[in-house]
Each structure stands twice: as C-alpha cells, then as structure tokens.
Amino acid sequence: MLTEGLRAENLTVVYERVVALEDVSFSVSHGSMTAVVGPNGAGKSSLLKAAVGLVKPFRGRVTVLGDTVEKARGRIAYVPQREDVYWDYPLTVWDVVAMGRFKAVGYLKTVGKNDEKVLKALERTGLTSLMDRKISELSGGQQQRVFLARAIAQEAELYLLDEPLKGIDAESEDKLLILLHELKQEGKTIVMSTHDLSSTFELFENILLLRNRVVAFGPPEKVLTSENLSAAYGSDRVAMHFADVRRVAGWS
Amino acid sequence: MELIQILLEPFGYEFMRMALLTAVTVGIVASTLSVIVVLRGWSLLGDAISHSVLPGLAAAAALNLPLTLGGAVAGITASLLVGIVESKTRVRNDTAIGIVLTGTFALGLVIISKFRPAVDIFHILFGNVLAVSYEDFLTTVLLSAAVIAFFAALLKEIVAYTFDPIFAYVVGLPSSTLHLVLMLMISLAVIAALQTVGIILIIALLITPGAAGQLVAKNLRQMFLISIAVGVTSAIVGLYLSFYFAVSSGGTIALTATALFFAISIVRKMTFSGRRAPQAFR
Ligand SMILES: Nc1ncnc2c1ncn2[C@@H]1O[C@H](COP(=O)(O)OP(=O)(O)O)[C@@H](O)[C@H]1O
Ligand SMILES: [Mg+2]
C-alpha cells in the first residue's frame, strides 16, 4: 500500500549564486494536506518545481508517491502560479480543463466535447455554467478553480498548487480549500504553497514553514507559533497577524 | 476598365499565377503560426529567426547546398542561441534576441560579400515575385504543406505547451521537442516566404495577422480563422497592388497586412464603444 505522498531528503536547490533551498527534509503521508508557508523568495516555488523535476536538486533528493520524480511524473498535477501561464490566450474554461485529458487521449486525437471526465471536473468545481467563458474574463477565484478542475480531469494522485490563494477573496478561498479537502478525503495528497498568513490552516495536517531552510514542520498548532513565524517572516507585523491566526483557529 | 478585367488581367501572365499561389500559400502558413507567435509573445524571436536565416542561405548558396537546408539550420541555431545567451549571461530576453539577430544578420552579409553567390540580396530580404520559378513555387508549397500538416497534427500539444509550459512538462508532453519543432516551423515559413515577401517582411505576416485576430476573437478557433483570413487577403491584395503600381510585392503585402490591422482595430473601437455607451447610463 502506498503511504508516502511526498518526501524531501536534504534537498538543496541552487540557482547560480542564489541558494533557494538548503537542506530541506520532510515527509508527508499519502492522502494528507500540507501547506508550504513562507515569505516571497522563501523557496516555495522551487520546492514544488523540484517535486516535478523542473529544477534539479543540487544536493539531496525528492521522492514522490514512493517513486523517483521521473517515474511519478504522470501521477502529479501542478497548478501553476498565476505568473507562469500566458493569459492572452483566448481559451475557454472547457479548453483549459480539457488539457487535463491530453495525455490520456494521446496524439492526433481530440478531447470530445462530451468527455465525461472533463464535464465531471467542471461540475465538481462549480464551473459548468461558465465553461464557454474566456478564462481571462473570470475572477481570480474562478481562474484557480479552472486549473484545479484541469488537475481533477487529469486524475492525478498528488496535487501541487503554487500560491492558489493569491489575489482571491475570502469566499473563493473557502470554496477552493473545501474542494482540496474533498480531494484529500478521496485519498489524494495535496501540497499547496502560500505566503499569506491569514489563510485558513485548520484543514491542513501539516505546515512546512520555510525560509530557504525548514523553520518548522508539523501540525499547524505546533508550527504556527510566534517564534517560528518571526523566524520565517522576521518582523513584528507577523506577530499581529499571528494573534489573529490563533484566535480564528481557536488555539488561544 | 471593368472590375472583372482589373481582377483577371494580372493572371493572364504565367508568372503572376505562380506568384499568386505562392503568396497565398505563404500567407496561410505564416498567419497560422502568427497566432502562437503573438499569443506567446514571440514577435521579437520571430524577428531574430527571420534575420538569422540569411547566413544559412548565404552559406548554402556559396557551398551549392539546398537553400532550404541552410536556412532551416540557421533559423533553429539562432533560436537555440537566444536561449543560451539568455541563460548563460542572464541578460534580458529582448537583449539576447537583439544580440543574436544583429550578429547572425551581419554574418550573412559578410558571407555574401565574400563569396558573392549568385543570389540577389535585395530579393532575399524583400522578395521578388517576378522571379518565382516553378521550382520555387514547388518548394514553397511543399514546405508550407509540411508545416501546416505538422502544426495541425500537434495543435493541442502546441497550445498546451505555449500556454502553460510547466503543465506541459508535468503531464509528460515532450516540451523541448515541441519547442524545437515550433522554431523549425517558423524557420521554414521564413524560407517559404523567400520569393514573395522576403525574409525580412515575412515578419509582417508572422505578427500582424495574429495581432488582428487577437483584437476580435472570442476563442482560439476564431483567432486562427481571422488570422488566416488577414494573411490570405494581404497576400492577394498586396499582389494586385504590386502588379498595378509596379512596386515591390513584399512591400505591398506587408503594407496591406498593416492596413488591415488598423482597419480592424478602428472598427472594433467603434462597435465596442457603441455597445458600451448605454451601460454608462445605468
Ligand atoms: N530561475 C531562477 N534563477 C535564479 N534565481 C531564482 C530563479 N527562481 C528563483 N530564484 C531565486 O530563488 C529564491 C527562491 O525563489 P522561489 O522558489 O520562487 O520562492 P517563493 O516561491 O517562495 O517566492 C529567490 O531568491 C529567487 O530570487
Ligand atoms: Mg513563488
């Protein structure tokens, strides 16, 4: 039985002279939900990219679903950071979700307009009525759901989401987190990054607090302490936020 | 003269019939690629590839090799070179393109001035539709057909890769191969355009039709259709203008494309503000 979702051992990622990640080790079990939290430049994107083989470790290694990154590639879905896709494309919601089926459908074939997996993914994410809309005309929260729907249509085991909560309102955030939680209940592994401390963290089994190194790793109530947060974010601003976080989560 | 006569007159000449078919073919292939070039923001890269085809053509001419081969190799080399300059020196992408563009173009001029192959540099750069031979025509059509066939066959992969490269990589599409194939296609389109618009003005057909399509298209299919319509119209209208005013066909084709772009953007502005106005009063 598959028990391991994602594991990093002494993972070090270096770009020329910048050390993005140093000696990062952690492991999350399959069927769990993890938030990678840290300020801008903390190495969150680098970690997710290392998990799919887009950046190669300088040292250490990553194991995905108990396999090497190369072997696991097809079982991973990646929801890119906003800046990583080209929004000028006049693609409809359906067009993007259908991409999740490209690999399964194969070359020289098109995804049928009635493809069940696409339609189901649209339904689950509440996008059925929007499927003919251009993605550039959607709200930020709807756009994130489109990319999550594509991941669902792909039928992946591990979902990696890079800053999906950036620039979306509280209601959309709740919708997205509930969807992720459902996927987790179905046994998928979810790893999501965020720099925003006001996110809702109760749904997550683990928090990986990152500042190029692991500041702390474990269940939210253990990790999200004022010492840890100021070690990661390094300012008093955090202390303020932090009081809110604990209050909302009901830990204080 | 009657309109029908004006329209038919040029095609009493064998060379004009050949020129028309060649120009329309080039229009179709370039405006198809144009959609991706514009959406992905590869306009400058297309510019670099078209300029860099020159040394390949010159070297091939000097060595008596097929021009197509020389041009294709040079185009792909240039696109790789841009990537290498960008990543190894960490200059900005547009700077890397500028360096490669001018460097390769200069190399082409040096080769031509040294070996003086039997090609007219002006014609290579700006096209000379009068000189379209049956062989040129055949080369253009075969190259274009090959490009269109590959493009159509790989369309969904090409769109996925250019829209969201990380996704393409993660689901296991052959990203780097797709990238190379696209660069090869752009190079071949440039070579196919050699006789009609030339390797410099082909840029107009690699950018403008797609840009015009982007102005009004509601989805990707529409964008392809509008882009191709603009490309083909430019080729045909441009050729007539070239015939009747006895001016460079490359120039008239590129100018027609430019005029169409502005016409479409003005029409869009007018219909758009017309539709918007009532809302302002709500
Ligand atoms: N391709 C790259 N080349 C050079 N440096 C990079 C590259 N990508 C990221 N970095 C650097 O690595 C560090 C971590 O970046 P990143 O993983 O994007 O952090 P985050 O996603 O947490 O903001 C930053 O200092 C960033 O500037
Ligand atoms: Mg990031």
Describe the structure.
The complex is a heterodimer of chains A (252) and B (282). Chain A is of the alpha/beta class and 252 residues long. Chain A has one domain (4-249): P-loop containing nucleotide triphosphate hydrolases (Rossmann fold), CATH 3.40.50. Chain A is built from ten helices and ten strands. Chain A is globular. With 282 residues, chain B is mostly helical. Chain B has one domain: ABC transporter involved in vitamin B12 uptake, BtuC, CATH 1.10.3470.10. Chain B has helices at 3-8, 14-40, 43-62, 67-89, 93-115, 121-126, 134-153, 155-163, 165-170, 175-192, 198-216, 220-245, 249-280. In chain B, α11 (198-216) packs parallel to α13. The longest helix of chain B is centred in the C-terminal third of the chain and has 32 residues, at 249-280. Chain B is globular. Residues 277-282 of chain B have low confidence and may be disordered. The chains are: A alpha/beta (252), B mainly alpha (282). Chains A and B meet through β6 of A and α2, α8, α9 and α12 of B. The complex binds adenosine-5'-diphosphate and magnesium ion (MG).
